[in-house]
Design goal:
Layout: E1 3-10, H1 14-21, H2 31-35, H3 38-47, E2 51-56, E3 71-74, E4 78-79, E5 94-95, H4 98-110, E6 116-118, H5 125-135, E7 144-150, H6 160-175, E8 182-188, H7 205-215, H8 219-223, H9 227-234, H10 242-250, E9 256-266, E10 269-277
Parallel strand pairs: 1-8, 2-7, 2-8, 3-6
Antiparallel strand pairs: 1-10, 3-7, 4-5, 9-10
Helix pairs in contact: 1-5, 4-6, 6-10
């Protein structure tokens, strides 16, 4: 049956995608950031996942203020890159895995998590930038992807505890799927950053480092961080880190960190990245 073998967390800064698309990755400003993902790309080539459940937040492209689902799972066959105002990113079409997506939806909803089921949507930089960081610029993405969107844009977002528990439910769902699949779960967004107001440009390296240090070994404590602490310590957009907790909850309690990268700044954001593996 299907199994979750590992997970990835990474920031999804739109400027990172633009740097790749415009051939700027070797410029002095960007080179240190992309260097931290070289090992990650080698790891991905070794792992060869069949499916990635990719947790991200939509940035008002698939969902507008007219409809804001807290949790939404993509059950479609394919997803185009969204036009976010400057044209579609020149990246491959994302191929979905409807059978596993519908199975996860059924299992998770019956475990009392309300999901919005989305059969058609475009996916924005929140999903495509992590794929580019981990796979580079291929002609086609090498595996299927199930988009899993979380509202962290409009108040109120889900709590870290709710996200962590949702990860447990996703793990249960995947492990009950009968096909032999190598599945990864990714959590994206963060780290500390604020895009508006008096604290625009905020970066809190101390908070970010502690979050990274405790992510593998003490996720229960991280799941208890209240919303207001994210805002105070990590900025208004730091709340994106609750999406990492879905990934952590989906992995085994004794999952091990195998790679870490932290870089400041990328645009006006602290970039964080972790790879965790489940015990074999």
């Amino acid at each position: 049956m299907a199994r979750i073998t590992g997970g990835v967390t990474t920031s999804h800064v739109p400027a990172i995608g633009a740097a790749m698309d415009l051939g700027k990755t070797d410029e002095d400003y960007w080179r240190p950031l992309f260097a931290g993902y070289e090992r990650s790309k080698a790891w991905m080539a070794e792992q060869e996942p069949d499916v990635i459940v990719l947790v991200y937040n939509d940035h008002a492209t698939a969902f507008s203020l007219e409809m804001i689902p807290t949790f939404a799972i993509g059950t479609g066959e394919r997803y185009e890159s969204a036009d976010e105002g400057w044209g579609r990113r020149p990246v491959p079409v994302v191929e979905g895995h409807p059978d596993l997506a519908w199975h996860i939806a059924q299992s998770v909803i019956q475990d009392d998590f309300d999901l919005t089921i989305v059969n058609e949507m475009d996916v924005d930089h929140g999903l495509t930038v992590p794929l580019s960081l981990m796979f580079g610029q291929p002609d086609a993405w090498p595996c299927k992807v199930i988009p899993f969107a979380v509202n962290v844009v409009v108040y109120p977002p889900p709590s870290g505890r709710r996200c962590y528990d949702l990860g447990h439910a996703i793990r249960k769902a995947v492990e009950s799927f009968p096909d032999d699949l190598n599945v990864q779960v990714w959590g994206t967004g963060g780290m500390s950053h604020q895009l508006q107001g008096e604290r625009v440009g905020l970066i809190n390296t101390e908070f970010d480092t502690e979050f990274l240090d405790r992510f593998a070994s003490d996720p229960e404590a991280l799941a208890s961080i209240p919303h207001i602490d994210y805002v105070r310590e990590a900025g208004s957009e730091g709340i994106e880190l609750v999406m990492w907790l879905i990934m952590r909850g989906a992995l085994a309690p004794d999952a091990k960190e195998v790679h870490r990268h932290y870089h400041v700044p990328a645009s006006n954001t602290a970039v964080g990245h972790l790879i965790l593996e489940n015990p074999r």
